Amino acid sequence: MARRNKPGFLAGALLALSLPITVNAQQSTDPIRIAYIEPLSGAFANVGDAGLKHFRFAADMINQQGGVMGRKFEIVPMDNKQSASESTQLLQRAIDDDIPFVTQGNGSNVAGALVQAVDRNNRRNEDNRILFLNYAAVDPALTNDQCSFYHFRFDASSDIKLEALTNYMAEQEGIKKVFLINQDYSHGHVISELAKKMLNEKRPDIEIAGDVLHPIGQVRDFSPYVARIKQSGADSVITGNWGNDLSLLVRAADNAGLDVDFYTYYGGGLGTPAAVGERGEDSLHQITTWHADVNVDENLTDYEKWFTDFKQRYPEIDWYYHQIYNQMFMLKAAIEEAGTTDAVPVAKALEGMTFDSPTGTVTLREKDHQMIQPMYISVMDSDAKYDADNSGLGFRTVAKIPAEEATVPTTCEMQRP
């Protein structure tokens, strides 16, 4: 049965405090630990560090309001060096340490390996099961043929994002030639395949001027790629690049004076706005679950305080991962409903759960554990109230996609315990 939980942020009732709670008399007062498996060194260390700060901030906010059944959240950072094999080793360490939850988001290849390892452990060790909470890995396979009872995705999947993005692009009459540039792993492959398919269906007159996959985290100079984009005559670029692979790309485009519109997944954070600077105005787009000026557009005063408090604590970065807010508060609600941190009852409490997020009602779809939520397409704008990445520009909403429209079917045939 669907459940609705009201966050009531910073007003003293952060989430579903009125829900019935079943508490064992011997309930532990130890912290509820979440293993955070992300790159904390190497090419994507800045991405891992930013996510860690988001999780710690959210945990602190919940803990200040009394925590979860009298227990505090604790985030346990683990450096996977952006390696799938390293991640599965860290997962085993978390299991050995009796950590009940693991979270990750950077790299769908890593997420895929974690799903397999979590399933394998949970089949073999029924007394020490673990849940995987995915806040940013967007390969559609993770909630389709690879779907798992023990995996929940709080970000929008890549096919949901591309459905919304290509709908918007199809309405822009000035778009005639599109260049695709993506990282050479599952996430980039999905964007390459689906973007071509969706654009052809919606605007068959749009020419795919180029389709390039490059090594992930290894390119230091994107100027040869930018030269290819320029030579192709493309007026628009679609990229799912993230971290330095995106900021270096847009910096190279800026240095070359490349005059195109960028349509991105991750253009709003972690060095990209600063890298493109003023050239990004009216040209650097992103599709996200939230951006800072949504607070202004929709009068989200409580969440605006959340965002500004985070910025005060961490002046070097912005609050970027809205899905982490949803994930942490929904996990809190699920634990309280289940009265335990055991994987199966918490998973049963999470699946199908609805939650009154600041941007509107969101739902963890029961069939595949995919979050269904409102989406925003925005573009860099010097008139935005909130600066992005200390760049001098922010983002302005150009399209809002309601939750009921931000969805695609799933092929998931989930095996439940």
UniProtKB/TrEMBL annotation:
Entry keyword Signal: yes
Keyword annotations from UniProtKB, A to Z: Signal
Keyword flag Signal: yes
Pfam family, one: Peripla_BP_6
Domain Leucine-binding protein: start-end pairs: 31-383
Signal peptide per UniProt: 1-25
Cited PANTHER family: LEUCINE-SPECIFIC-BINDING PROTEIN, PERIPLASMIC BINDING PROTEIN OF ABC TRANSPORTER FOR NATURAL AMINO ACIDS
Entry's family note: Belongs to the leucine-binding protein family.
Name this protein carries in UniProt: Branched-chain amino acid ABC transporter substrate-binding protein
